[in-house]
Amino acid sequence: MSKNDSLALDTAEFLLQIKAIKLDVHNPFTWSSGIKSPIYCDNRKILSYPKIRTFIRQEFARLINDEFGSIDLIAGVATGAIAHGVLVAQDLGLPFAYVRSTKKDHGLSNQIEGVVESGQSVVVVEDLVSTGQSSLAAVQALREAGCNVKGMVAIFTYGLEAATDNFRRENCTLKTLTNYDNLIKQALNRNYVKESDLQSLVKWRENPEMWGK
Question: What is the pLDDT of residues 155-209, one digit of tens each?
Fold first, then answer.
């Protein structure tokens, strides 16, 4: 097993342990988009567990150094990735800013909060990638501010085809600590789900909109 595979399984195990990710094919969750899903992710829970919070911070820092080299700024996607982004920026000794989903409708109407200068090289920190649309909106805002976005790191991705297409279209590299394939593998290995649940979990990822109908 490679170091990256081991990291992905360890990350998945932590998320399952603290129920930051829940799996239930029999009582599916309803996302805000209306999609019925056997998986629900809330990576904010990581912040309540110092050991796991430190692990995520350190692995983010290693991933950024390994994949992107020297950068000028860490930017977090509001709101879920703000805290993780701050921790990583502190670890790397870099400035931090965060990006709202839209511009404020009052005050200075900022979408980017913090000091961002044209020409800076940036890595964006995200907690979760589903279709990638909201994540890539942050990338676009930073590019419009003149930044060179070298890529994005995230704790977890569902690995949906739509996300792959969206990141390719926007020419943005995405690197994650773990993903859906490693998650269900670890969940099966550690008996968080049964073998009989596996087919349903695989089918959901193939067609989330039609799953369960």
Answer: 999 999 999 999 999 999 999 999 999 999 999 999 999 999 999 999 999 999 8
Q: What is the DSSP letter of 212?
A: T
DSSP state of 45: G
Where do the domains of the chain lie? 3-206
- Quick one: 167 exposed, middle or buried, by C-beta within 10 A (0-12, 13-18, 19+)? buried
CA-to-CA distance for 120 and 138, rounded, in angstroms? 15
Q: Is the sign of the CA dihedral 200, 201, 207, 210 positive or negative?
A: positive
Choose which CATH entry (3.40.50.2020, 3.40.50.1360, 3.40.50.720, 1.10.3720.10) describes domain 3-206: 3.40.50.2020
Task: Please tell me the pTM assigned to this model.
Answer: 0.94
